[in-house]
Amino acid sequence: MGKNEQFKQYFLSHRIVTNELIGKISTEHVDYQPTPTSMPARTLAHHMLKSFYQFTSAAAQQQPKELFENEEEISLNELAEVYTKESEKLIKSMSDEDFSATIDLTEMIGTKLPAEQVLNLAMDHEIHHKGNLFVYVREMGHTNLPMFVKQG
After folding, report:
1. What is the rounded CA–CA span in Å between residue 30 and residue 43?
2. Which residue in 21, 57, 125, 146 has a CA-CA distance of 20 to 30 Å to 50?
């Protein structure tokens, strides 16, 4: 199994749960913030999805495409579905050698990293914010929540 397939499986083991949590955010809760300084639920979900896609585009040495004309008019479920599919395509496009390529992220985070580290950074970022999402949806009243990762 190539590195791209291994990483894709790891990504999806988390993203499936992220998307399930996003699916629990109803339209009346998109502006929910657990504290005044927290991101609104829609902003948090969008930030997670778009950031992962942008990091993955960089790792795959591609320019991220604008996937929607006006993302504010798109449902969170559709955003999650499209960003997931596009991120998955980028991961699949990478060869084992691409994982070793040096990616210049000096404008974004001030350093250059191997593509594999860029992907791991993207996953760490998503996992961090997925924890936030668990808090949000619990406070929205949801009690039937998934495990933090989807196995199998």
Report:
1. 8
2. 146
CA distance 84 to 11: 9
Residue 64 to residues 1, 2, 148, Cα–Cα distance (Å): 26, 23, 28
The 10s digit of each residue's pLDDT in 56-107 is: 999 999 999 999 888 888 999 999 999 999 999 999 999 999 999 999 999 9
25 phi-psi bin (left φ>0, alpha ψ -120 to 50, beta other)? beta
The vertex-62 CA angle with 58 and 65, nearest 5°, equals 100
d(CA 51, CA 58): 11
Confidence at residue 71, expressed as pLDDT on a 0 to 100 scale: 86
Q: Which amino acid is residue 130, in one-letter code?
A: K
